[in-house]
Each structure stands twice: as structure tokens, then as C-alpha cells.
Amino acid sequence: MSEHKAILLSVHPKHVVKMFSGEKRLEFRRTWTKHPVSSIIVYATAPTQRIVATARIKKVHYGSPTALWELAKQLGGGLSRKELYEYFKGKKEGYAIELESISRIPLPVEGKKIMKNFRAPQSFSYVAPEILSNIEKGIKS
């Protein structure tokens, strides 16, 4: 299996707005990839249902909800303590993905226009490097 450098990540639109404003610099996940990734393609879930951005991964943090809350306060988690604890309910540890270089796609695009057999991932799915490259070219032009 070739090494994947990018994933498609499903994110609720209210969190996407906070990413764009800079309020949310961390994306929290109950599980994370088994293979190393350096970039994320952001898919905004319903009602948007479009690919809306790309981002680089600065660092992946792993820890207890308490440790992740402290990190959220420092770096910008974009959610309340209650929301974070609710999200990690039943989990002793989780992940905070520190994002940088968030690039908004000027005209959000349907996944099927970029990927032949597109299906919105439940959490994330690996993406071929050329898909990320094509999206990034579209952002620059």
C-alpha cells in the first residue's frame, strides 16, 4: 500500500465557519489515521455537502479529554468544555489535530466532481495525492 499524505475529513459546517475565522485551530477526533498524513481536504457535511477547504496538519496531539481541553484553551478549540467532554464521552483518550494553512475553496465543489466514486466519509478516508493536488491547483487559479 502506498503511503497516503492526505485525507478527506467530514466536518460540521458550524465548525468549518470557525476554522475560516481562526477561532478553531484544532479538529478533535475520537480515532485517527493509521498511516501518516500531512494534509486534509475538508468536506462540510449537511446541509452544505461540499468540499470547502484544504489544510495542513501542523501536529497531532493525543491525550485525555482534560489534556485536550487545556490544549483547546491555549490554541483555539472552537468549542465549549461541555461540547468537548460530550464528544469524548466513553473515551479515555482522543486526538486534537492542529491545523495550519487553511485554504478556503472559493467555489465549494461536490465530491463527485473531483472523485469518481465519492462517498462522504463517516469520519475520514484516505485520498490519492493527485486529488489533493488538483484541489490545490483550483484554489490558486
Spatial extent as radius of gyration: 15 Å
Give, in spatial order, the strands making up the sheet with the most strands: 2-5-4-3-1-6
List the total number of helices: 4
The whole-number mean of residue pLDDT values reads 93
| Main sheet summary | 6 strands, mixed
Q: What does it look like?
A:
This protein is α+β, with helices and mostly antiparallel strands and about 140 residues long. The protein has a single domain, classed as Hypothetical protein (Archaeosine Trna-guanine Transglycosylase, Chain: A, domain 4). About 30% of the residues lie in helices and about 35% in strands. The protein contains 4 helices and 6 strands, in the order βαβββααββα. It has helices at about 15-20, 65-75, 80-85, 130-140, and strands at about 5-10, 25-30, 40-45, 50-65, 95-110, 125. A 6-stranded mixed beta sheet has the order 2-5-4-3-1-6. A hairpin with a 5-residue loop joins strand 3 and strand 4 (about 50-65). The longest helix is centred in the last third of the chain and has 12 residues, at about 130-140. The protein is globular. The chain starts with 5 loop residues before the first strand and ends with a helix.
Question: What's the arrangement of secondary structure elements?
Answer:
Layout: E1 6-11, H1 13-21, E2 26-29, E3 39-44, E4 50-63, H2 65-75, H3 81-87, E5 94-109, E6 124-127, H4 129-140
Parallel strand pairs: 1-3
Antiparallel strand pairs: 1-6, 2-5, 3-4, 4-5
